[in-house]
Design brief:
Blueprint lengths: L5 E8 L7 E8 L5 E8 L4 E8 L5 E4 L23 E7 L5 E7 L14 E5 L22 E6 L1 E2 L5 E2 L14 H14 L3 H8 L3 H13 L2
Antiparallel strand pairs: 1-2, 1-10, 1-11, 2-3, 3-7, 4-6, 4-8, 8-9
Helix pairs in contact: 1-3, 2-3
Bound molecules: copper (II) ion and zinc ion.
Copper (II) ion (CU) binds next to strand 4 and strand 8.
Amino acid sequence: MTESEQTMVAQCTLEHSDTVKGTILLMQAPNTATLIKGTITGLKPGLHGLHIHEFGDMSDGCKSMGAHYNPDGIDHGDLIKGHVGDLGNIIAGESGTAEFSIKAHRVDLMGDRSVIGRGLVVHENEDDLGKGGDAESLKTGNAGDRLACGVIVARSEDIVEAHGGKHSTSGRSMTKGEKKKREKIVKGMKKDKAGFKKRYGKDAEAVMYATATKQAMK
Ligand code: CU
Ligand code: ZN
């Protein structure tokens, strides 16, 4: 199995906030957009800028994550044009929860522009998407303080084939026993098929297998 046949899965758990919490899942099948799905709670209702920042460095909290990931050296913008790390805004409802699913065509989880190991930051304010008319708008979108952040980490055991079949880890292939164990785990997960479908859409099965593989090979 070569890398070009695999779906890459990564995740990010937000830290450095007592109120703002969240887990974000990133998935990319070869030659497709990266799907970025998550739920963030504890936000003020309204729009909040969301970006991938350059460094997965939290040594000085969210501050040490640097600027927006910008491998092309261009101005800040939106999901379509601008920094690769510009994910636009997420919307928190009255309850302060933002549930989102972003199709990021310029974000990669594989290759030399992979964002794995970089940081994800949710901001206090709305991102003006580079249309604010001032210098800061072209740099940060005036999105304000960094409320919470996390490192995008690969679930390396979760490298799975896009459409079922054999699933192996990067290190070694599964033993017979482990495969059996995995089937059992997946069977259990399928009891909550609706829940997985709701969370991951058509990727539900891949996510189930990825998670089960991880558990079975532990
Ligand atoms: Cu940011
Ligand atoms: Zn930007």
